[in-house]
Amino acid sequence: MRFRHITPVILGSILIFSGVSQGLVIIDSILATQCIYYLKDFDWGCGTKGQSHAAYMCRCPNIDWVGSVTNCIESQSDDRGYKDHALAHVRTRCSQKAMIDYPVDVLKAYQQNATKYIQEPTEYDFDHTLHHPISVNSTSFEFYRRSFNHIYAQVIRSQAYQWGYIFFWTFVIMLGTILNFSKHFLISYANGSKSKFTNNFINKLRYKLTVPNLIHKSQIRILGWPIQIPTTLQSFVISMFIIYMILATTTGYSIDLPNEYQKTRLNQIQDLIGYRTAFGAFALMPPTFLFGIRNNPFIKLTGSSISTFLTYHKWCARGLVLQGFIHSVVWTDYAIREGGYAMWAMDDYWIWGIVGTIVTVLMLFQSSNLFRELSYEFFLLVHKTFGILLIISMWYHCNTLGWMAWLYTCIVIWGYDRILRFLSILWTGGVKKAKITSLNERLVRIVIPKPFGPNDYYFPGCFYCIYFLNFKLRFWQSHPFSVMKSKRSNEEDCYAIVFKTHKGITGKIQKLLLENAKKSLVVDIMTEGPYGHHIPLRQHDQYVFVTGGVGFSPCYSQAIDIIEKDQFRNQSKIIKFIWVVENLEYFEIFKPDMEYLIQHGVDLQIIITNTNKLGKEDSPDYTSIELEEKPSDELYKIIELNARPKISDIVNQIDLSISTNFITSGPRGFIDDMRSSVSELIKDSKVRIDYHEESFSM
């Protein structure tokens, strides 16, 4: 959909607006705050010199106090706009804390009237109720001016650190966009340009940083708990993010004593940390929401995978939770020490702050890989519910404090994603028929019609989110499936989806077929998408696809795309397609698909592992073996083994005299081995070698 192209501009504009608006906080108007705090130390007959609701319920109806505070504002500045904003701040305080609304013009009138009765303040007025407005003692007022100017400067510094989070991710995205643009439009490694970007420095940089995993495996288990390990490049970006967060949270504090607002060193540092961490948490909310949605515009801009942005989504969320937790702990300790916790705990903003903290901690715990593996559908439902609760809790926590534009941004991002998802369903044809076929007891194939010509935004390696309009298939949920062009006869206008049944929706599809005692079934569906990222496949002379099991469809669609483009450009690339499967039945089932590759000169190798025959004594790791070719009369090779192949053996047999791009898809362990093996090839290569993977593992 073309309107997706303008979304980065729209979202960027919203982010710029974020953090501009403030509400009932001391720095909204430093002038008003200075005057309010200066006058609170006098006796207005309220029995308190604090800043509680009760104090404002008493002061705001008192015309002498209103006249005094407006006169202070009028006398301490020459800037009309500055003074009007201060008067608006007073209006907000009385409206929210005393339920009395004074329009700014009315406050100006009170100030004019007060000049007729105003008197100089005396020591007597601190302990005896005033019955007239008072003027400002310049010498005494200077202390309040200095106190709040210092606090204001510290808060502004915290806001600068807050924007640092946005600038950090903006820089990462801009750099990714430039590199992606270069890959697509400026750089080519084909047609004899073998030495481009293959010097020792670049090879070592790619071997150490941009290609490999941080460790060999992308997931490890500690006491049975799955831990996701980012790639080396992702880890570098995350490390820079963590370093910035630590610096932004722990540095740049300046204590000024004596100070009217916070009178002790501990109170003042806690107040500043409270501001700093609150701003940090708010600043991380928009990136967290944006990196986690389906219609993330930066996926296409940067060419980064969905898995990459989901990794950044997780780390932004972890930073958000940490900052919010520190904020809550600091203010809870402050309230307990000062003896005001019982009173503060009755305020709505405090209650909703507790709710927000609990929601974020539970949300982070629930989003771990363990719960995703147990039941992805349930995880998604709970995760979305927590996301809505977070928005609600932060709304009521901050609607009287300010900085609501950060929250507005999150709401707009969430709404933007939902609107695009709805429009995508309409764009791709609304309700349509899909044919579901059981290929065997574990494999299922779905055929769906292509969208109408101009509405078809399919690209190789993409996936659709599909709604199955059947109650037994949970019609209210959508599920991602990799999509490939069907090259079978009578399916020229169709896309195909293949998958192995597990728990969740895939198991329910197989169960529905069994209940109907049919091998095929036609159901109504809606499609949403396509999603994913484009892999630049036009710069190399050779393409090697290494894929495992039923996860072959992303590689298959990429191979078809190269064939079709080469035919259009009258070019010829070397294409190798190596498919590792459990048994020969896979090949027999999908032979009609593979025949298209064979007919167009693709070097097709099918490696049969026979893993169903392996005993317990066999190692779960890939075993180094001698590859033996089974005789075949067809234009492809079938290699039968009695163990899983060592991926490095497969990769090392490739002729690397020309620029080569390795593309892989399949199970997590399979992809980890491919990434590691290709990294080793890059280290000493004399030609350009690239690596891409199609994986949604998180």
Features:
about 700 residues, alpha/beta, Elongation Factor Tu (Ef-tu), domain 3, 7-stranded antiparallel β-sheet, 7-stranded mixed β-sheet, 22 helices, about 50% helix
Number of domains: 4
Spatial strand sequence of the major β-sheet: 6-5-9-3-4-8-7
The unreliable regions are 16-23, 613-628
Nearest-integer average pLDDT:
86
Structural class by secondary-structure content: alpha/beta
Note the total helix count.
22
End-to-end CA span? 27 Å
Q: Main beta sheet, described?
A: 7 strands, antiparallel
Give the overall shape, derived from the CA principal axes: elongated
Rg is 32 Å
The helicity comes to 40-55%
**Topology, number of strands:** 16
Oligomer state equals: single chain
Residues in β-strands, percent: 5-15%
Descriptive notes:
About 3% of the residues have low confidence. The chain folds into four domains: 295 residues, no CATH class; 91 residues, no CATH class; 104 residues, Beta Barrel (Elongation Factor Tu (Ef-tu), domain 3), CATH 2.40.30; 153 residues, Rossmann fold, CATH 3.40.50. The radius of gyration is 32 Å and the shape is elongated. It is α/β, with parallel strands linked by helices and 698 residues long. Helix 4 packs antiparallel against helix 5 and helix 12 packs antiparallel against helix 14. The strands form three sheets. It has a seven-stranded antiparallel β-sheet with strand order 6-5-9-3-4-8-7, sandwiched between helices. The chain is built from 22 helices and 16 strands.
